[in-house]
Each structure stands twice: as structure tokens, then as C-alpha cells.
Automatic annotation (TrEMBL):
<feature type="transmembrane region" description="Helical">
    <location>
        <begin position="77"/>
        <end position="104"/>
    </location>
</feature>
<keyword id="KW-1133">Transmembrane helix</keyword>
<feature type="compositionally biased region" description="Basic and acidic residues">
    <location>
        <begin position="19"/>
        <end position="28"/>
    </location>
</feature>
<protein>
    <submittedName>
        <fullName>Uncharacterized protein</fullName>
    </submittedName>
</protein>
<feature type="compositionally biased region" description="Basic and acidic residues">
    <location>
        <begin position="674"/>
        <end position="712"/>
    </location>
</feature>
<feature type="region of interest" description="Disordered">
    <location>
        <begin position="665"/>
        <end position="719"/>
    </location>
</feature>
<feature type="transmembrane region" description="Helical">
    <location>
        <begin position="551"/>
        <end position="570"/>
    </location>
</feature>
<keyword id="KW-0472">Membrane</keyword>
<feature type="compositionally biased region" description="Polar residues">
    <location>
        <begin position="29"/>
        <end position="38"/>
    </location>
</feature>
<feature type="transmembrane region" description="Helical">
    <location>
        <begin position="142"/>
        <end position="167"/>
    </location>
</feature>
<keyword id="KW-0812">Transmembrane</keyword>
<feature type="region of interest" description="Disordered">
    <location>
        <begin position="1"/>
        <end position="53"/>
    </location>
</feature>
Length: 719
């Protein structure tokens, strides 16, 4: 023993807590048998005393309390980033992945997946991209998701640092604290338990932002799929169009007919059987190539407009008494138009001696230089026309004829054609057709060549069917549409005669027949050799990706990055406000470091003796983050305070302390925000319960030391 006389008094002045700790540590050991089944005992070193803790922490300025002591040097944002290089790496990787996926998707959205042949300089995607579009979508989804998870990792790391500030504002049980920390790390299943424990605004903000960040990668996945779903997108494109058109001959009605337009017959037969096959029917009155312009999209151009008016009335026919199957016409009547060519038209027409609908031209006139009128006769032999005049005839088996006369007026004028609702704006409108550029009948005079051109459209119904045996065209109602269909069969006997239903007509149906015939004649006269193609600028819907969907991919990363910046600023401000010395994660090493308060060491020591049971009792312990005050007297042990307090005797240990105590210190001396219940009475009651629980724990430790139960604890016993 030392001869120093002061040694004994020093030992006598040691506190009862120090004596208990030495006795407790001397018995706190673990026993593990080695591979030779020989007992081996490992005794842990004695746990440090509060003085040892203060001396060890003094080198890092982590000692709190004591008058005149300088405040510890804070380790803030830059130290945190330097200490965690993985966070910087994740931020860089996240930004790169998100930018690459969005830029590639945006550039692909400017391309067309299917480009028509008529488009000049079409911005089409390459064939490999179109073929492997599904694979490209999968790769871009993977890259985008990796980027979102990387950005979320950084944002959640800062959310985790905010847990220390949350523990300053409210207390948690260890079980709920584990759920709250898990939620800030992106564990969605822990969110309900964490939400139920929120008692402060800080905790709510941190938890809400963490949940939003955790969900953003999953929100981004369907957005990528939505961005890669192709649709029809309006594109401004250029194409070529051959303008002009016309007819070089004049119309002549003769027996047999010699004014034939084979193209008009083909077009009419196709459209009469299937009206949907007619291109752009709403623009039937324009002298344009509707077959070529169909699918070109919206545009504006100059073209010739053909205005048509039809007026029908019943007319009785006067057949020859000789029983011949012909009727006289007025095609040789000149009237006031001395420039007409009456000598080339015959004064009568021949018809079939079978039940059918016959059509011929009775007369025509030129009303002005741009207007022509023709009168057509529609006669149903052994049939009926609703509203027609019935006349007795004697043509073989034909007994009667129902007929009407229709005046068809045609007018031509240059006009502006607008197709669609969104045509592109161009400086000079393209010229599709013009009266000055049309090819007109050369045999007509200069004053009537436009009238002769319009006459072809006024007599269009007689041009839509071929002649059989030199007679005028015949039609029957054989189609499901109710429109006249050319009839070229000559029956050999009465059994081959058409049914009455096939020879029943209405004026409305015949009017539709006239309009459809005019459209067929227009289409057939446009396939002429014209000048050089002009450039037609149109807005057309092409299969592509929608650019506005690509912009939606910016929402998840921008929101995540905004929350990340918010967490960086908010957490730094909270650490400065509450004088928290280190910006750090809530990791296992940091948790162990902050668990070395006497309060937790005592509770953990008691619960460690029950190694055969789960830590249910320890999980119910309520803690918060603060300073545990220690001093020379027992009255200082277990006193807690806020970070940054001054003016109190003794020093303290920073860590997780009793959450049932009243918060003291420089931040207003108010109660813990999350622990407010019903005023000062509840606070006093919690303080009293805290003292009672500490007394119970002290008695439990004495019992363990006396009974020697500590030696039965498996695992590390250094607490």
C-alpha cells in the first residue's frame, strides 16, 4: 500500500456509485467454451467512470457544462460530406443517370417512329431503335430508377441526420425510435408506427419529406413507361404536290356515247359500294387531288372551288308512238348562246328495253363565263321514283316510266382552301389549282372554254357507267347504300329481270348520286401531267412520343432534389439552433456512442441480465437527446439539461437521456414539445415516476450484485 496519507481519505470520499460500478464490473464477465471443451473465462475491462469519460472527451471538446468553458467546436455540413464520400458519389451518380435518361428520351421524342413516303426530310428514328423499342424502354427505366434511388439515398441521409434534432424536441421510446429511424431510411412499412409517434412539427416535417423521397423512385417507373408510350403527334412536314389538271375535250352526247371517263367509272363504282373509301368527302367541291392529299394533315392553299346546286322536279316523257326505245332531247337547242356547238350533239337518246334507271342530258346552257347549267333526266322504267311523273310506254316488256328532271348548276372560282383545324402558317400559300392554270377544252372558244370544262361536272352521272349496245348508261339499286350501281347485263328472259326493289328510287338518293358522281369526275381529271411539283407544308399527326410526357420525368428528380436541399439547410439550422455539436448519421456506431449515458447504461445492464428474454422492457424506455449532468454530489447524478447550457456546476455527457424528465436550459426552460400533456402537474408526476424508477433500478443492481446473477449474462457485458 502507498505511504501517502492522503490515499485513504480519497478512497473514503469516493461515491457509492463508483463503488457499485467497480463491484459490478468485477463480476461482469462471459464464459465461452473453446473447441476442446475447456472452460475459458474472458473478463472485460472495467467500465470507465464519469471522470474517465470526461477526460477522454475533453480532447475533442465534447464536454458540456462548467462555468466559463468554451462551447465545443461544431462539425457541420462540410465535415459530414467529407466523412461520407458515398453520399457525394451517390449524388453524382444520381444526377448523371437521371440526366442521361431524360435527355435520351427527349431526343427520341423528337423522332418519328413511322414516317410516310411522301414526307420530305422526315425526322424518323433509325430502324434498329424502332425494332428494339421495348428493350430501350427497359434500359432507360433501369437507368432512371437507379438515378432516383441514388438521389433518394442522399436526401434520406440528411433526413437521418435530422433525427438528433427531432430527439431534442420530443422523446421516443426505443422501439418507436427504431421505427422512426427506419422510416427516415426509406422503409415504408415503418411509416405507420412512426406517424403515430409524431408529437412535434420537426418530426412531422422530417417524416413527411422522407416518405415523399422514398416513394419518388416508384412514381418514376410508370412515368417512364408513360413517356415511352407512342401516340399521334402533330408534326410540321413538307411534301410535294403536282398542281393543275383539266380536260382537253368538250362533252358530246351521242349514240353510242363517245364522251367516256374510265377513271370516273372506277372511282364511282368503288365509292358507291363503300362510301368510306371516298377520300376527304367534305372537300368534294374543291378541284384538288383528294387521294393525294388524304393523310397529308392540316394545311392552307389556293385552289378552285366548284359550287354545285341541284333542283329536281317531276317531268313526263313523250316517247315515240312507233314503239322505238328512244327519247328526244334539247341538246341541239342553241338559244341565246351562239358559241355553243349544237352540231356535235344528237337530238335523241336510246335506252335499254329492260327495267332499269336510265340517265341522259336533256339540255345545257352557259349562264356566265364561270357558270354552266345542265338538265338531266332520271327515268325508272317499270320502276318508281318518289315524287316523279309516271308515263305509259310501249317498249317491249316495259309498260311505264317514272321520271324527274334535275337542273344542275356548276360555278367555278378561285378560293382559299383550309383543311383541318390547325394548319401551319406560311408566308406564301401554295397553289394547288387555279382557273388560269387549268387545262381547258381547246376546241371551245376563249369565252366558253371554262363553261365547257364545267359541263363535264354538270353531266357527271352519265359518265359513271359504261354503255351497253350503244344505249345510255343503266343503273340498278343493288348496293347496300341505296346508290345507283352501273348495270351492264342484258337479261335473256324474264327470269333475269331485276326485282322491283332494285328499281325503286328517291329524289334525295338521286341527289347524292349527282354529288358523288361530280367528285368522281373531279378525281379522274386530276391525273394529268402537270408542271413541277410544288412544296406543300402541312401539320400531320405522325406516330411518335409525346414531348409533354417527357417533361413529366423532371418532376420526381426535381422534387427529390428540392427536398435534399431543404434537408441540408433545415438540418444545419436545427443543429446550430440546438447547439448539436456534430452533423452525423443515426448509425449504429453513433447510436452506441450516444448510449453511454449513465441512464441507459443502468437500464441496459438490468435488461442484459435477462438474456433469455427479448428486450421488451428496454424497448419501452423513453429517451431524448441531451446532456446528462454529473458532479461531485449524488444530487447531480441523473440531472439532465439541454445542449449549450451554462451556469451549472459539474460537467455532462452528451447522449440519449431519460425522456421522462423536464427539459432545462437556455431554450426557454419549457417542457419537451412532444411530451406536453396537461401542464405542470403531469411534469411533476413524470419527475416523481422517474425518481421511483431509478430507485427500483438501483435496488435491482444491488440484488444482481448480491446474487451473482450477472455472470449468467451471455454476450458482451460492457455497458
Amino acid at each position: 500500500m502507498s505511504s501517502n496519507p492522503d490515499a485513504i481519505p480519497l478512497r473514503r470520499t469516493r461515491s457509492r456509485r463508483s463503488i457499485f460500478r467497480e463491484d459490478f464490473d468485477s463480476q461482469h464477465s462471459t464464459h465461452y467454451p473453446d473447441t476442446l471443451n475447456q472452460p475459458a473465462t474472458t473478463t472485460t475491462p472495467p467500465s470507465p467512470t464519469p471522470r474517465d469519460l470526461r477526460q477522454s472527451a475533453a480532447a475533442h471538446e465534447f464536454v458540456f457544462g462548467g462555468p466559463g468553458q468554451p462551447k465545443p467546436r461544431r462539425l457541420g455540413l462540410w465535415h459530414f460530406l467529407i466523412s461520407h464520400v458515398s453520399i457525394i458519389a451517390a449524388l453524382v451518380v444520381g444526377i448523371i443517370c437521371v440526366v442521361v435518361s431524360i435527355v435520351y428520351t427527349s431526343n427520341l421524342g423528337k423522332r418519328v417512329l413511322e414516317c410516310p413516303d411522301w414526307v420530305r426530310e422526315c425526322p424518323a428514328a433509325d430502324e434498329w431503335t424502332v425494332t428494339h423499342l421495348g428493350t430501350i424502354q427497359g434500359v432507360m427505366t433501369l437507368v432512371y430508377t437507379i438515378g432516383m434511388f441514388a438521389l433518394g439515398y442522399v436526401a434520406l441521409a440528411f433526413a437521418e441526420t435530422a433525427v438528433w434534432a427531432v430527439l431534442q424536441k420530443q422523446s421516443f421510446t426505443l422501439k418507436v425510435l427504431d421505427a422512426f429511424v427506419s422510416a427516415t431510411r426509406g422503409k415504408i412499412v415503418a411509416v405507420p408506427a412512426a406517424v403515430l409517434a409524431v408529437r412535434s412539427a420537426i418530426a412531422g416535417i422530417v417524416l413527411l419529406c422522407a416518405v415523399v423521397v422514398s416513394l419518388m423512385p416508384f412514381v418514376g417507373m410508370p412515368l417512364v413507361g408513360w413517356a415511352y408510350t407512342p401516340g399521334l403527334v402533330g408534326k410540321r412536314v413538307e411534301s410535294g404536290y403536282v398542281p393543275g389538271g383539266g380536260i382537253t375535250e368538250v362533252f358530246v352526247q351521242a349514240n353510242p356515247p363517245n364522251s367516256v371517263l374510265a377513271g370516273a367509272m372506277v372511282e364511282y363504282y368503288s365509292w358507291a359500294n363503300d362510301p368510306s373509301a371516298e377520300p376527304m368527302p367534305e372537300y368534294r367541291g374543291w378541284y384538288i387531288d383528294r387521294k393525294t392529299l388524304r393523310g397529308r394533315g392540316d394545311f392552307t392553299a389556293q385552289a378552285v372551288k366548284l359550287q354545285t346546286s341541284i333542283s329536281c322536279a317531276p317531268r313526263s316523257l313523250l316517247p315515240e308512238n312507233s314503239g322505238e326505245n328512244y327519247f328526244f332531247t334539247n341538246m341541239t337547242k342553241t338559244g341565246d348562246n351562239s358559241d355553243q356547238l349544237p352540231q356535235i350533239n344528237q337530238d335523241k337518246v336510246w335506252v335499254h328495253k329492260t327495267p332499269h334507271l336510265a340517265v341522259w342530258v336533256d339540255e345545257f346552257s352557259f349562264l356566265s363565263k364561270q357558270q354552266t347549267r345542265a338538265t338531266l333526266i332520271f327515268a325508272a322504267f317499270n320502276g318508281t321514283i318518289d315524287g316523279g311523273a309516271t308515263t305509259k310506254v310501249n317498249f317491249g316488256n316495259l309498260e311505264n316510266v317514272s321520271s324527274i328532271a334535275c337542273d344542275i348548276n356548276m360555278t367555278a372560282a378561285d378560293d382559299i382552301l383550309t383543311v383541318g383545324t390547325n394548319p401551319p402558317s406560311v408566308e406564301d400559300l401554295p397553289l394547288l389549282s387555279s382557273i388560269d392554270t387549268l387545262t381547258l377544252p381547246s376546241s371551245a372558244s376563249q369565252d366558253t372554254h371554262l363553261n365547257e370544262f364545267l359541263l363535264w361536272f354538270a353531266v357527271a352521272p352519265v359518265l359513271t357507267a359504261p354503255s351497253v349496245y350503244g344505249n345510255q348508261p343503266s343503273f340498278l339499286n343493288f348496293s347496300a347504300t341505296g346508290l345507283p350501281i352501273p348495270y351492264t347485263k342484258l337479261p335473256s328472259d324474264e327470269e333475269d329481270y331485276p326485282t322491283p326493289e332494285a328499281n325503286t328510287w328517291t329524289i334525295a338518293g338521286l341527289t347524292t348520286f349527282v354529288y358523288l358522281s361530280i367528285g368522281a369526275v373531279v378525281q379522274s381529271t386530276l391525273s394529268q401531267t402537270g408542271p413541277e411539283p410544288i412544296t406543300l407544308t402541312t401539320n400531320v399527326d405522325l406516330l411518335s412520343f409525346l414531348s409533354n410526357r417527357t417533361f413529366l420525368l423532371l418532376f420526381p428528380p426535381l422534387l427529390t432534389f428540392t427536398i435534399l436541399i431543404f434537408f441540408m439547410i433545415y438540418t444545419t439550422m436545427l443543429h446550430a439552433k440546438h447547439s448539436i455539436p456534430v452533423l452525423r448519421l443515426f448509425s449504429l456506431p453513433e447510436l452506441l456512442k450516444s448510449s453511454q449515458t449513465q441512464f441507459l447504461r443502468d437500464i441496459a445492464g438490468v435488461d442484459a441480465a435477462k438474456g433469455y428474454l427479448p428486450a421488451h422492457d428496454l424497448a419501452k424506455t423513453r429517451v431524448r437527446f441531451g446532456v446528462e449532468r454529473t458532479g461531485m454530489g449524488l444530487n447531480m447524478m441523473g440531472s439532465v439539461g439541454s445542449l449549450g447550457e451554462e451556469g451549472e456546476e459539474g460537467e455532462g455527457v452528451l447522449g440519449l437521456i431519460d425522456g421522462n424528465t423536464i427539459r432545462e436550459g437556455s431554450l426557454g426552460s419549457e417542457e419537451l414539445e412532444g411530451d406536453k400533456r396537461s401542464g405542470s402537474k403531469s411534469s411533476v408526476r413524470r419527475e416523481k415516476n422517474g425518481r421511483e424508477s431509478r430507485g427500483e433500478r438501483r435496488r435491482e443492481r444491488e440484488r444482481l450484485r448480491r446474487d451473482g446473477d450477472v455472470k449468467k449474462v451471455p454476450g458482451i457485458t460492457y455497458i
